Write the structure tokens for this entry.
Amino acid sequence: MLGLMQEWPLVCHKLIDHAARQHGHREIVSRSVEGPIVRTTYKDLRERSLKVAQRLQRDGFKRSDRIGTLAWNSGNHLEAWFGIMGMGGIYHTLNPRLFPEQIVWIMNHAEDQALFVDLTFMPLVEKIAPMVKSLKKVIVLTDKAHMPATALTNAVAYEEWLAEADGDFQWAHVAEADACGMCYTSGTTGDPKGVLYSHRSNVIHAMMAAMPDAMGISSRDVILPVVPMFHANAWGLGQSAPMIGAKLVMPGGKMDGASIYELLDTEKVTFSAAVPTVWLMLLQHLEANNLKLPHLNKVVIGGSACPRAITEKFEKNYGVQVIHAWGMTEMSPLGSLCTMKPEYQDLTGDALLDVKQTQGWAPFGVEMKVTDDNDRELPWDGKTFGRLKVRGPAVAKGYYGGAGKDQFDAEGWFDTGDVAHINANGYMQITDRSKDVIKSGGEWISSIELENLAVGHPDVAEAAVIGIAHPKWDERPLLVVVRKAGKTTTKDEILAYMDGKIAKWWMPDDVVFVDEIPHTATGKIQKITLRNQFKEYKLPA
């Protein structure tokens, strides 16, 4: 027997229908590439998204066509998103921080038919567009007055292109299982792989993200998604914000400490999300200029492990709650968030910080487990670590084109490639990527734990740990450090700081100082490059 409930499909355009109806005058504030701050509303967003959908259809684009976006976080980028989905297409967010040849490979693999692009990236697009055979139209997110001269014959100025539509358009009738978005993985272990989001998965993920024990956002919040829309859906905020009717503040391409602080202050932002490097820049700006954060209540930090020092500074010096999060492109992307269950709600000081160092617990909609190499499930005891596997309605079941089949099993479990342990209260902690674990004398050493500890030293700006071959122990840890500007801390001082905080056999065998640590396009430490840089390095005897 079936339930007697209405079949109301979970499709993404319903999010902005709701936002326009219930929160129509709520602002979307964008720092434009051209310079000025632009203010629109959810009502405007819906009307302009309908025009985008109408224009795309009029130009001959069809359901399931992949439409690329190469743009910063802005109201225009949101319009493109919802317009593409609203005509039945698939928005394909491209990461401009990748090398041009990587972007070309991804666009050709996805067979992108059109591209929405910010002015910033026009020189890049002029270079790569001729190599993308499927590309029919380039829509430059600006007006005629700012449209640059270009050799591209298929390029149009967005505002003039949009003005040709009247918005008299009905959203496409799509099924909730239909694809609506696409994002490729960073490709750190091979070619990038395409993750294909459905309407249903995006809506469910938006609900998960907004829950009180996840991001805990509401219509009363002012949200600044610093994490880019090309970084796995801006962690869902581009869909969660209209769902709950929060004011959105979009930073554009300026993510330095001063620019982020300006928006936090002038727009009275209450909630924000970004990777650790962004928050490091903000904290440095605050400290250098003796500034406060009177409006900001909560930040989500993910993308890579959050150093303890960042959490401590936000909470102790500025009264801002930190939520440590973990996820992956394949998970839409949220997998866990570190909010306090009743078991921990009364903790203070170091005990609280110890919990906040974990990646937290999985909300409803995400199941997780840790296994050994033989797929035997390991206990949730907070110390036994193994391969982290996940499944759920917003978790991928495969990659576009059939790549990476070995990461998915018959029961739907996705092998994340992370190594983790889970404690009895369900709090998960990443100890490493499986390929980055240092195996010393038959035991595993977590490079992440060593990195987080080293960054806690007051003179250390950034740290990375890699395994160096050792004749007796197989591998031993090498600590690579970037000093803070003007600091001259030594190897012995750093090792003395770490002494007693970790097992003695975990202590790095050496410390080297560098001016810069290489990063991936998404801001993560590029261990492959680092290992190559130190491939001839010999540990001290």
